[in-house]
Every structure is written in C-alpha cells, then in structure tokens.
Amino acid sequence: MIKERDEKEARLQTTSSTPEANALQDNIRVLNSQIAFKQSELENIADAEEAAIVVADTLEIEGILLRDLFVSPTHYEFFLSWWKQTEGEKAAATAALEASYKSEIASQEDAIAELEGFRVEADRLGGLLADMTAKRDAAGAEIIELKQEVDRLTEDNESLRKQLESKPSSVPTNMTANLADLAKQIQAAKPGIYNKRWRDENRKTHFIATLSATGEEIEIPYLEIGKYREESQEEAERFRAEQAQAELARLAQETHNVVVPDLQFPGEEGAASGLDGDSSNAPVVGSPTLEERVEALEKRMATIERDSYKVAV
Length: 313
Prior knowledge:
The chain is of the alpha+beta class.
C-alpha cells in the first residue's frame, strides 16, 4: 500500500494532465487514509499484545504467579503466544468496528450535507416558481385587459364603419386612416406622464411617474399603466409652458375687456341728483372697485409668469 502510494506520488510529479493529476491526488488521499488507519490498527494490536504480556507476567492466582503454574517455561511461552494472538485479534476487531462506525458517520454526514444542499436549491427554485407564478398571473390579467380594449376598439370601429356606410357614397372611406386617427385621439386623451420607473425593482407591481400636466409624482399599478401616455420630460415641460402662456393670454384678454364705469363727480352735468342720467354703468355698492380688480389681475399674472419661468427653466 505504501509502495503504491509512492508510485502514484512519483507519477503526479511527472504528469502534465490536469484531470489525471486530480485523479492521482484523489487516489493518494485515499491511500494515505488507508495507511493511517492500518498504522493505527497495528499500533492498537501491538499495544494490546504488550498489555497481554504485562497482564500474564503479573497475574497471580492465590498468590502464585501464572508462569509458575506451568510445567515448563516452554509451556508458558506457548500460552503467552496464544494469549498475545487472542488479545491482538480482539484489538484488531475493535479497531475495525470503530473504523466502520467512523466511516458510517462520515457517510451520514455527507448525506446530510447533500440533503441540505438539495433543501437550499429547493427553496431557491420555490422562490423562482412563486415569482414566475406572480408574473404569469399579472400577464394574464393584462391580456384580459388588452382583450377588453381590443373589443372596445372593435366596437368603435364597427360603429364608425356603420356611420361611414350611412353617408353618401361620394364621401371617401379610408378605414385604415380612420382607425389610425381614432387610435391617435384615444392616445392623446390619456394623461401624459414621464420619468416612469419601478417602485420596487424586485416585486415590480407598481410604477412611479410624474404627471406632465402638474409635475405631481404619482403611483400607478402595473395593470393600469395603459391608461397613461408616456412622453419625455422635455415634452411635459413644453406642455406646461404652453398651458401657462395660454393662461396668461386669457388673463390679458380679460384685463383688456374690463369696462371702466363712467363716474360722475360733483359739479359735473347731472351732479344735482348725484347720479348720471343713465346709471347702468354705475358701480354696484359693495362690489370690488376697478383698482381692486386690476390689482388682483396683476397679482394673478405675476404668479403665472413666475410659474411659467420655473417650468421653462
């Protein structure tokens, strides 16, 4: 066994093949383990034989040494040889049984480690299965929603087709163009959003996005993302700037259309009664004065201009 190990170690020094080297190293480890076990077994046998000799040499029976009970030293030596062999065999059997137990324990530990690996892998696969099941359910719900949307568009298309058929034949009917326009109208009617991202990259059940109209950040369920129209941040800022400009123009028009009342002062014509002949333009008691209305409009325009500047920046 030792010679075999030495030969394999010599081959290991000269081999250049990695698989062969690995196989030789495994064989050498096994042989070293067997040699160590054999050496331990021999040591146990030697110890047992030595202990048997000590016991036989010192054993007394009613005050008489065991060796003195034999007829001759030759008979005692024969008995001693038998005794040593018996004790050595017992020691060898004990060592073999101990080695068997150790081997079985090691085998059980390997099996336990392998089962633990299987358990960890099963947990990992269970997590993947749960994730795939959730995604499958979400996809199924989305398919149902898309099917409903297709059915609705089909009904709209059918209604549009009937309307076109009811018109005079001179009217051109381009169903493809009509459907494209209808799709554009539907898409344009959806609220605009930008900066869309997952709320949780692992679960992926909700989106976080910013409303183009107000700049407000909202949370959108995964199955409801089709209700919104995604656009770039530049488009959203341009949209808000256009809204602000339109509001400024509207307020400017309102300011331009303000009717200044024809006020009468004492000493002018019609002052005798304190009223003009036509009092339809006289300010109503308790209503805001012209200065107050103009001041309020100026404040409103200043606020809108400031908001428009922020959006443009």
